[in-house]
UniProtKB/TrEMBL annotation:
Species of the source: Acidovorax bellezanensis
Entry membrane topology: Multi-pass membrane protein
Pfam families from the UniProt entry: MFS_1
Protein name: MFS transporter
Domain Major facilitator superfamily (MFS) profile: start-end pairs: 1-407
Main location: membrane
Keyword Membrane: yes
Subcellular location: Cell membrane
UniProt keyword annotations, A-Z: Cell membrane, Membrane, Transmembrane, Transmembrane helix
TM segment ranges: 20-43, 49-73, 85-111, 169-188, 220-241, 261-281, 293-311, 361-377, 383-403
Amino acid sequence: MPISNKNKHPQREHARYLLIIQTCAGFSQWVDILLIFSVPAFLWESTPAQIAFIASCFGLPGLFLGPMIGALLDQLDARRAACCAAVARTALTGFIAFAPGFEFFAALVLLKGVANVFYWPATAILTQQLVAPAARVQYFSSLSALDQVTKVMTPLIAGAATLTMDAQLIFLLSCALTLVCALWLFFLPQSATTHQERGKHLLIDAWKGLSYGWKSIRTLPSGLVVSIGLGIGVSLALAIYDPHLAAFLNSIQLDATAFALLVSSTGFGAVCGALLVRFFGKSAHPSQLMRTGLALFFTATASAAILSGFYAQAIGIVPLMFLWFINGLGYEIFMIGCNVNMQNLCPPHLLGRVSTSARSLQMAAVVAGPLIGAWLISVQSRAMPFGVSAVIALALLWTVMVAPPKHGMPTD
């Protein structure tokens, strides 16, 4: 049904609908991530190398195509671009649900990775247009809470669904969710958004825009540059130790149940962080949220480094659950502040290319982090990745204290 524009506060109404759209999109993404790595293993008995190949198909389009696609999106109507990308995600997910073999499955996952690269920056531009600056902390904290709840629910829902259907067909749930996104985006009034006049040669204009975007990096607000750098740093710190957590737990005689408990503790901490900001910190300055989040993240990471380095064999599951709860709490509070700063500080005509470039750099950190962690373990010990991540977190905390993003809260 069409979205009414007769509300006394149409921008608030549009922001609520965008919250629904993005919650469905995030839920779909979690379903995809769960199934893309599990279905090949169970259905076609794929090797670890094949699973890694699937992961690269899903994630690498953002690394290599992100900036160019972002520059292209800056030339387009964000609502239409997001709607078309949502339709593409829906169609591709439907095909994935019936993929007859691994090769076809991998090709479809690659194409869906490309569709994701169009969808997420397009909706980032849409968010800047629809959500008032003063309401962005409330919006992103609400979105984060809902996203983390769906993240926790996804394995439970997928597990229940396997009782009545083949695991591959659960992709149809993701398909239905992205279809909801496409329909709501289609019915969103065009008057609710703004867009630039499109040129006749979009690819040429996008290439010029990309070149201009790189040249204009020096003119970006310093707070935005700091925020992007901090986000990349936190991604690197997480990626250094997180992929090796299960192996570390195994080395201290803790089983897969302990790993599941830590993952759940992280998710619960993230939900609590989002809810705290939503109900008690929605008027907080983004840089304050970033400082608080990084302080908690550093505390958890440094404590994990100390425990793993000096008391590894004496660690119980309860203190680890507490530390990973604090880790998730701090990370989520930090990311809310970081996302708000991106929306508030980035010039609207550069948001597509800046957001995709930042996402590409974060993806590079996510790819490099596990390799660094593996090297640290090989030359030192299993505790070393935690120590290096703690040092990185301390450097980031020092940075946000010395050079905080000072202008991240414009008013209506």
